[in-house]
Specification:
- The complex is a heterodimer of chains A (350) and B (387).
- Chain A is built from eleven helices and eleven strands.
- Chain A has two domains: 208 residues, Peroxisomal Thiolase, Chain A, domain 1 (3-Layer(aba) Sandwich); 128 residues, 3-Layer(aba) Sandwich (Peroxisomal Thiolase, Chain A, domain 1), CATH 3.40.47.10.
- Chain A has 350 residues and is an alpha/beta fold.
- An eleven-stranded mixed sheet of chain A has the order 3-2-4-5-1-6-11-10-7-8-9, sandwiched between helices.
- In chain A, strand 7, helix 9 and strand 8 form a beta-alpha-beta unit.
- The relative contact order of chain A is 0.18.
- Chain B has 387 residues and is of the alpha/beta class.
- Chain B has a single domain, classed as Thiolase/Chalcone synthase (Peroxisomal Thiolase, Chain A, domain 1).
- Helix content of chain B is 33%, strand content 16%.
- The chains are: A alpha/beta (350), B alpha/beta (387).
- At the A-B interface, helix 3, helix 5, strand 3, helix 6 and helix 7 of A face helix 5, helix 6, strand 3, helix 7 and helix 8 of B.
């Protein structure tokens, strides 16, 4: 049994992905940041919208249309590392600027990462399971494990599973200082070729409606494995075990979606993973679409649904072409800062 | 299990202080804030340097939050006699709840967030996951590692997640808990919301003036029955439920929908009737809103609620750690068949007329419920049972 079946998806990203997706035109970063294209947010009352931080706004913008598809969703499961950062910094600034004087609490209340799941429950009057996973580069994967456990217990239940991270001044500065973004000039055309440290800052909100019902589903998440390690040999070994355990006999990985992000220090992990698959496997990269951010694996899961639905792949995504025309089994490998890794095995419904 | 709080650095010290009705809330001494004297806190009177020295933990970038977590984690693994091999086993999960994370370094964070050239040693330590990742790295853990932030119910959800991992067969053992340290950030935040009491808090009292913040950490080792062997057992986790109040970002609905659904759901998970709960470790923060709403929800569910109390009057509100610290206290209730008094409630809330237990008592207990309700409407109840 898979962790869950995916029935609907929504993604607000730096590319044309919402409400309808068209990846044929590639949007370029501005000031070396890939920031989301914000929609009009028709479903959110203006008074509430005005008070939302960007992370909450894009999260709600992507999630609410999915929550409205069903009379009742049984729970809201969000993974985010950075949500609330923007408000957190505004509140810090208040503390310093007003020397701990009379401060307004709005930023403080919105500064916790659970603000997205909380707002969603309030707007949609949802009393169900509500949780926020914040384990940095594996926040989304832990949320997906959570959804999988929920559905194992109650296969007929529907869950909103999502990931949101945005570029706020605060996390952008801290990650820049730590050397996670490229210091030299680049475009998305040469991001993967420069062979220098650092990646491209990005953001997105990605939402999935998942349950235990295969009927009419877009895709299924068959297996998910997370690793904490900086040793690429361990990544290679665990990939082997993962495929042996979860890939049905006689089947192969038809497509690898790689989280390669242009950071020369992290390339060894992606190469190890490519080497663990058949030589002529098709390889797709996606960080030039959304940049690097802690929950980018959710964007890869969204992309796998897109590919399974469209059954064709825009040229700019392809790192290695293959003769295959149909994709049944997709492996997603992503890592964050070389310390947190995940494999996801996604299959179509055919 | 392991715990550190304003009333003691170990499980034994905490139990003794609870039994003796001691309060650890006082003026702040460990860092500078305008509110050091006017907003009492449940502060652990060990400096960050002392903690670091005691624990032999001096990795660059380590924060007070990580040190408090390490303190409780070490006690828990000593108590549970976990070997290094068991800690590194792929079937051993680690789940931590926290809301403050490395933000205890409020001023450093503000400085770093504005730098252009070079940051401090803490640039990778501010976020919530830094605490769990520190423990994972120090003990080279290989199972599922996760960090949860649902504000004041973070640790309760971490415990629930660990129990569910074991139930789903994704772990055989889960080290679960939570941590938060006092910070200028949270003191100013709660103060801006006008819910910090200028006096020692008085949970469930008609004249309550708000909450006192606290700090601390607790970890519990959950094991699947088949790997327990002949180890000492404290209790069984039989019930849990998470529900959102879906009402307001920072206050509970009048009828207490979320608290009611969480408590009721936990009973259903445990397949217990309300009458079987012998004691409730209430959320009981001491705010106008929480204590009234929690009382209403208890009345609605239990009709005649069992004995209850809030340990916030001993240790303050430890936010993301509260659910774990109070889980340890609930387990102590069961293990020693005793209940600890809630402090400072002179006149019960007139509308509900529910009074917390006010003295130490030996009592026969089968099941204890522990409540945690957080900002964003995140409500979670846990039930621990005698095994």
């Amino acid at each position: 049994m898979p962790l869950f079946y995916i029935h609907h998806t929504n993604c607000i990203s730096p590319q044309q992905t919402f409400p309808d997706a068209d990846l044929s035109v590639l949007h370029q970063p501005v000031n070396y940041k890939l920031q989301v294209i914000e929609p009009k947010y028709d479903g959110i009352p203006p008074g509430i919208l005005r008070r939302m931080s960007k992370a909450v706004r894009i999260g709600a913008g992507a999630a609410l249309p999915l929550l409205n598809k069903l009379p009742a969703t049984d729970g809201i499961i969000i993974g985010t590392a950075n949500a609330g950062m923007e408000d957190c910094f505004h509140f810090l600034k208040q503390i310093v600027d007003y020397e701990e004087g009379q401060l307004t609490p709005g930023n403080f209340v919105q500064s916790t990462p659970n603000a997205i799941a909380a707002q969603l429950s309030m707007i949609s009057h949802n009393n169900g399971y509500n949780i926020t996973h914040v384990h940095l580069g594996l926040a989304f994967e832990n949320a997906a494990i959570d959804a999988g456990m929920m559905i194992k217990e109650q296969p007929e239940h529907n869950y909103l599973l999502g990931a949101v991270d945005d570029i706020a001044t605060y996390n952008y500065t801290l990650n820049s200082l730590a050397g996670w973004f490229k210091k030299e000039a680049f475009t998305t055309d040469n991001l993967y070729e420069l062979n220098t440290p650092g990646s491209l800052a990005g953001e997105a909100a990605t939402m999935f409606l998942v349950n235990g019902n295969p009927f009419n589903a877009i895709a299924q998440l068959r297996a998910l494995h997370t690793i904490h390690s900086t040793d690429e040999i361990i990544i290679g070994e665990q990939l082997k075990t993962f495929l042996e355990k979860h890939l049905p006999e006689g089947e192969k990985i038809d497509l690898l979606i790689s989280g390669e992000n242009g950071d020369s220090r992290l390339l060894k992990y992606y190469t190890t993973c490519e080497n663990g698959l058949l030589e002529n496997v098709m390889i797709v990269r996606f960080k030039h679409l959304c940049g690097e951010y802690p929950t980018a694996a959710a964007m890869a899961l969204w992309l796998s649904c897109y590919i399974l639905q469209e059954n064709q792949i825009p040229q700019h995504l392809i790192k290695q072409q293959s003769a295959d025309k149909a994709f049944k089994n997709i492996l997603i490998y992503n890592n964050y800062k070389g310390a947190q890794h995940s494999f996801m095995l996604v299959s179509g419904m055919g | 299990m392991g715990v550190i709080s304003a009333i003691g650095n170990t499980v034994a010290e905490n139990r003794l202080a609870l039994s003796e009705a001691r309060c650890g809330i006082s003026a702040l001494t460990l860092f500078a804030t305008k509110y050091a004297d006017s907003r009492p806190c449940g502060e652990i009177k060990l400096s960050t340097d002392d903690l670091s020295l005691q624990l032999n933990a001096n990795e660059p970038g380590i924060t007070r939050t990580s040190l408090l977590a390490l303190h409780a984690f070490e006690e828990a693994i000593r108590d549970g006699q976990l070997s290094p091999a068991q800690l590194t086993d792929a079937d051993t999960a680690l789940i931590g709840g926290t809301t403050v994370g490395g933000m205890c370094l409020t001023d450093e964070l503000y400085q770093d967030a504005q730098q252009i050239e070079s940051g401090s040693e803490y640039i990778n330590s501010y976020d919530c996951s830094s605490v769990t990742m520190y423990l994972q790295q120090r003990y080279k853990m290989n199972g599922i590692i996760n960090t949860i932030n649902t504000a004041c119910s973070s640790a309760a959800n971490a415990i629930m997640y660990g129990a569910r991992l074991i139930k789903a067969g994704l772990a055989k053992r889960a080290i679960v808990g939570g941590v938060d340290s006092l910070a200028k950030f949270t003191i100013n935040g709660f103060n801006a919301l006008h819910i910090l009491s200028p006096e020692i808090c008085t949970p469930f009292d008609e004249g309550r003036k708000g909450l006192n913040l606290g700090e601390g950490a607790a970890f519990i080792i959950l094991e699947k029955e088949e790997v327990v062997g002949n180890k000492k057992l404290y209790a069984e986790i039989t019930g849990y439920y998470n529900s959102n109040d879906a009402y307001h970002p920072s206050s509970l609905s009048d009828a207490g929908d979320g608290p009611f659904l969480a408590m009721n759901g936990a009973l259903q998970t445990a397949r217990l009737s309300p009458g079987s709960i012998g004691f409730i470790n209430a959320h009981g923060t001491g705010t106008e809103n929480n204590d009234l709403v929690e009382s209403r929800a208890m009345l609605k569910l239990f009709n005649q609620p069992p004995p209850f109390a809030s340990t916030k009057s001993n240790v303050g509100h430890t936010l993301g750690a509260a659910g774990a610290i109070e889980a340890v206290y609930s387990i102590l209730n069961l293990h020693h068949q005793e209940i600890y008094p809630g402090l400072n409630c002179k006149t019960p809330i007139s509308e509900t007329n529910l009074k917390p237990v006010d003295r130490y008592k030996k009592i026969s207990l089968q099941h204890v419920m522990s409540n945690s309700f957080g900002f964003g409407g995140n409500c979670t109840s846990l039930i621990f049972s005698k095994c």
